[in-house]
Each structure stands twice: as C-alpha cells, then as structure tokens.
Fold this sequence. Notes:
By secondary structure, this protein is of the alpha/beta class. It has a single domain, classed as Vaccinia Virus protein VP39 (Rossmann fold, 3-Layer(aba) Sandwich). 22% of the residues lie in helices and 20% in strands. It has helices at 22-34, 50-53, 106-116, 133-136, 156-165, 189-201, and strands at 44-48, 64-69, 77-78, 91-97, 117-128, 168-176, 208-215. The protein has a seven-stranded mixed beta sheet with strand order 3-2-1-4-5-7-6, sandwiched between helices. The longest helix has 13 residues, at 22-34. The model has no long low-confidence stretch (mean pLDDT 84).
Amino acid sequence: xxxxxxxxxxxxxxxxxxxxxxxxxxxxxxxxxxxxxxxxxxxxxxxxxxxxxxxxxxxxxxxxxxxxxxxxxxxxxxxxxxxxxxxxxxxxxxxxxxxxxxxxxxxxxxxxxxxxxxxxxxxxxxxxxxxxxxxxxxxxxxxxxxxxxxxxxxxxxxxxxxxxxxxxxxxxxxxxxxxxxxxxxxxxxxxxxxxxxxxxxxxxxxxxxxxxxxxxxxxxxxxxxxxxxxxxxxxxxxxxxxxxxxxxx
Length: 249
C-alpha cells in the first residue's frame, strides 16, 4: 500500500462546479448528511475547505458554523487546513468534504480535525471511491491529467482504519452515485436499471462515500494493585498458668 503522504503540490478546487458533476455530488451528500445534522448539538461546527463550506448545514441546531480555507473570498477564517488555528477540544462537529484527495498529507489533516474535536464530537468525511466506475477513470491516459483524476483517491476502508486507530466509532458509511461521473448521469431506462441494481447488490461500488464517525474518549481510571503490604508482626500475648493452681501431691 502506498503511503498517503504526497510530494507534489495539490490543487484544491474552489467550488463544486470545478469538478465533473460537482453539483450533483454536493446534492447527494446533502441528502445523506441531512438525516444526521439535527442529531448534532453544541456550539461550533467547523467546515474545512471550500467544498465543505458549500454544503447545506442549515438543518443543524449549531448556529456557529465556521468555514476555514486558504482563500479569502468566503472563508470565515483564512488558514492552512492542515494546521488549524483552534484550541484542542474546542469544536463539536467537523466536516471534511472531498479534502483528503486534494491535500499533501491527508492523515495529518484528519489528525488536526481530531485534535480540535471535543470528546464525543462528530466527524463527517466524504470522498471519491477508488474502487468504482469513477475510480477506474484514473486508468484512462487522457483523464489522468484532469481534475480530480490527477489526484490520489483513498477508499473508505482505509479512512475508517485511520479513524479506528484514533478511537472513533463509525456510525455510517454510505456509498452513492454508481456512475463514472464523466458526463451526463443519464435518466434513461438503462441508467435507471443500473442505479437500482448497483445500489441493491453492489453498494460498495458507489463513486462517492460519506462517513459519519463519533469520537470516543475513554476516561482514565486508576488501576488498583492486587498486592497488599504484609501487616507488621505483633506477638500474641498468652495468659500464663494461674498461680492459684497447685500441683497435686
């Protein structure tokens, strides 16, 4: 397995419109997270990256929603996404939508999100599935140089391994859009039949995955030692024979 660290300069898209069928992808992700957002409570919801910022989180009861990005137009906070300027355990929900593909060190980005997330906080991650029709397009020569196939795709299984090592509980792993994402998604009978068949029998081959995870932090409880110190030795006092008894004659 290749290391996640990349040594080339990444080109993070400014909006969903810069990606093939980006608006459709955003709509599908919005439908998935819409069922989870009302369950999230707290004070701060952090959207990491421009694509995360364009997702609709209005159904969340968390009013303070912060967008952090390296570009100033719509960002609430301008900063590198792999070096978040927030205190440890200060954010209730983090959204990482299609960020890992376009960053040089995706594992470090996840660790940074984990650092600022409170215990029992929630993390939402979406990305391209390399084991799908969309992922197979990276094998076509003339598409290797185009966005997003010129970047690295990480499977949901690998991302979940990272989260398990950090102590997360995976609440959902949904795979969406069983298409190549290269042109019109299609509305014909054949396309409709393929969507129904693949979603029922080949769910893990969806081109997009959405992971919802909860940060679990076990409290540190002292372990009581099984051994005990031996009590100090104290002599037992034995009452002597009474002097009133006389030996028999």
